[in-house]
Predict the structure of TetR family transcriptional regulator.
Amino acid sequence: MSDDSAGTSPRPTGLREAKKQETRQHISDQATRLFLAQGFDATTIAEIADAARVSKKTVTNYFARKEDLALDRQDAFVATLASAVAARRPGESALGALRRAFEGSLAAHDPVTGFTGAEFARMAAESPTLTHCVRGLHDRREEALAEALAEAGGAPGGDATARTVAGLLGAVHRVLFGRIQHLTLAGYAAWEIERLVAPEGARAFDLLEPSLGRLYVA
Amino acid sequence: MSDDSAGTSPRPTGLREAKKQETRQHISDQATRLFLAQGFDATTIAEIADAARVSKKTVTNYFARKEDLALDRQDAFVATLASAVAARRPGESALGALRRAFEGSLAAHDPVTGFTGAEFARMAAESPTLTHCVRGLHDRREEALAEALAEAGGAPGGDATARTVAGLLGAVHRVLFGRIQHLTLAGYAAWEIERLVAPEGARAFDLLEPSLGRLYVA
DNA sequence: GCTATTTTTACACTCGACGTAAATTTACGT
DNA sequence: ACGTAAATTTACGTCGAGTGTAAAAATAGC
């Protein structure tokens, strides 16, 4: 909840708020730099604090968990699938909307589809902690999608069906995400990956069409 | 390496091996008891060691991570889906085999399908650490399934298709697992859960039939 | 400038995880 | 049965993430 102009909550004055964001960004930048340079696990919070010239406590104050220092825009990532379904066109199924969303993100080389850059991909792949965290984000994304589907209606069976369909659609996006990350690690350029993955995505969405094409149609 | 009497593996003599298993089981039992009594996170390794009357190091020696003390038969769980596909009948699709496997496990109230008992379900739900770990097991299970599908053949598109289909089939089992866990937490008895979830499972597998029913047929 | 609030810091602490070398237990040849 | 070699267990130290607390510093509002 963010109140703007007129405050129910005491609206912290400009400079304080600005400095907070500045400090947060500075810490995040230093952390990212160190993570990419020497790996996630090999970088300690003390090092990050030292690089950012703040105390350890300030770091863990802004970022509750170490992983939060490496993963940016988590909420945006989590919301993508649910948003795509909520914004589907009249007559378009959830499957169709998520297909369009994937194709758009693929063409845009969007990080939420797996285009995270080779350095990040290497860092994530080398750290079990980070890998688990990314998996958690995929799960939250799937849950958000399930809620969006349940709210949208358009299929018999209620929440149970919504969760199942969200699992299926989430799985497709998750697998394609992993594929893009894998190809990134293998050294392919973004445009090459786009050309390689596009037909795989098409095949996957085609595959689901007979099962899901008539569900959750707006 | 000292090979003695017989054996490809150095076959440590009987008593030593027996005592090891005994100690391991004893530690696991004490850990389980404490976890169920006071929760996973609220139980320290030191307490477990104390209860089992061994040193902390012995505990972390047998169980590399704390979660391993709570999760039993991980490899068996991971293998279930891949095994079901490998053992599918002639003319049976992977979807059909996994449907049979689910129905059998559901009727048997098998832990691998989510019948873990109310105490365990509560413990797992209350501990983020444990929840993440269970998610990791689902992922390993999906990966094993993908390998089994790729090895089995029976679909165009090679590994990419295998991974996608494994994602879909894994998602169904995972969602149903979660549903059973949820109902367990809500206080339903196993036989009630069986009656509630059976039609949901049927609906989910029916849903996928038009898409996957003709793939990976033995 | 003064005061109240917020942010940052220093310090201490818990816990999981890892490493090492000594002490204990078990196995086996003689 | 005894002694030696091997494995197991233990005690001890270390590291790093994460938390709590109260003092110190910075900022807001008057």
